[in-house]
Design a protein that fits this description.
single chain; about 350 residues; alpha/beta; eight-stranded parallel barrel; two-stranded antiparallel ribbon; 10 helices; about 30% helix; globular
């Protein structure tokens, strides 16, 4: 019987176990020009015992930034700064992928330079607010991307993926979940286009498919993963029609299956039946961040590896409180409780990680 503690091959790398550290925004890129810092190197190295470490969201372009103090991979300075992170993780024997996250309409002009405003598939503002250094601000109506701008955005993802490899990452994960740009194209309430980038399910899935294809061509499919979250309402996403939702995501997987990607990462929502369908139809490695709301994913989810529901399990909040989480999962605990105040939104410059490993 396969367990979460058995090794697995992923993109030419042998992972020590089947436990992935899920991407979590930390807003700690305090270096000049949204660059990674020594604090970030320590943070990820502490958690290198995961079979796979997936970083916080990293913007592939200036306009792709939606939160304060998040890191980028679109400048030479950013590439150089990330080297301290990847080197630190590799010294501990870990494997690390950078998550490329363009936030699209989720953001605010106050976070962007030179008069830029957030962009999206359509000029439809998200409901809600975003945290900025000036406090919470309402989301604004984004600039609708033209066809040529969409093509340029796809190229930005590919360029950022090349930068990730130059920075020492083992691969990249494309963030197609949680209401950010790729997910906005997939969702009918955020994508109201009637051209080839919208309309029905196939048109709305085109951007996700072309971004993934471009990145796979740039760095190799074996270094490319994609994260999706079908039906999750985060950041004012509405994918409420079950038939359309299934058509959208099964169609996307059919388009991507021939690429032989490193993995598909599903952040599961309440529609667990669709998760099972996607698991059945995806021919490659399947990473699952299971739906355990309101509790964080924990020890009880390990059976999802044993029963074949997933090839790897992604854990989020527990990794904040337990840097040595794989060891604790193997022994059945004990677990430090995550401090909810240390999630995105507060000043973390003085924050010290939990004491399982030196901070």
């Amino acid at each position: 019987m396969t367990t979460a503690f058995d090794p697995i091959e992923l993109g030419g790398k042998r992972l020590a176990n089947r436990i992935a550290m899920a991407p979590m925004t930390r807003s700690r890129a305090y270096g000049p020009g949204a660059t990674a810092t020594e604090l970030m190197a320590t943070y990820y190295a502490q958690r290198a015992g995961a079979g796979l470490v997936i970083t916080e969201g990293v913007q592939p372009s200036v306009v792709g930034q939606g939160y304060p103090d998040t890191p980028g991979l679109h400048s030479a300075e950013q590439v150089a700064a990330w080297r301290q992170v990847t080197d630190a993780v590799h010294r501990e024997g870990g494997v690390i992928f950078a998550q490329l996250m363009h936030t699209g309409r989720i953001g605010h002009p106050g976070l962007l330079p030179d008069g830029l405003i957030p962009v999206g598939p359509s000029a439809v503002a998200a409901k809600g607010q975003v945290y900025t250094h000036q406090g919470p601000q309402d989301f604004v109506t984004p600039k609708e991307l033209t066809h040529d701008e969409i093509v340029r955005t796809i190229a930005d993802f590919a360029d950022a993926a090349r930068n990730a490899i130059a920075a020492g990452f083992d691969g990249v994960e494309l963030h197609g979940a949680n209401g950010y740009l790729i997910h906005q194209f997939l969702a009918p309430n955020a994508n109201r286009r009637t051209d080839a980038w919208g309309g029905g399910a196939a048109g709305r899935a085109r951007f996700a498919a072309e971004v993934t294809t471009a990145v796979a061509e740039a760095i190799g499919a074996h270094r490319t993963g994609l994260r999706i979250s079908p039906g999750t309402p985060f950041n004012d996403i509405a994918e409420t029609d079950p038939a359309d939702r299934e058509e959208t995501y099964t169609g996307l997987l059919a388009a991507l299956a021939p690429l032989d990607l490193a993995y598909l990462h599903v952040l599961e929502g309440p529609d667990q039946g669709l998760t099972a369908r996607l698991r059945k139809e995806w021919p490659g490695t399947f990473v699952l961040n299971p739906f355990t709301h309101p509790e964080p994913t924990g020890h009880d989810s390990l059976g999802l590896i044993e029963n074949g529901s997933a090839d790897l399990l992604a854990f989020g909040a527990l990794f904040l409180a337990n840097p040595d989480l794989p060891r604790r999962l193997a022994s059945g605990g004990p677990y430090n409780e995550p401090d909810r105040t240390t999630f995105y939104g507060g000043d973390e410059r003085g924050y010290t990680d939990y004491p399982a490993l030196p901070a």
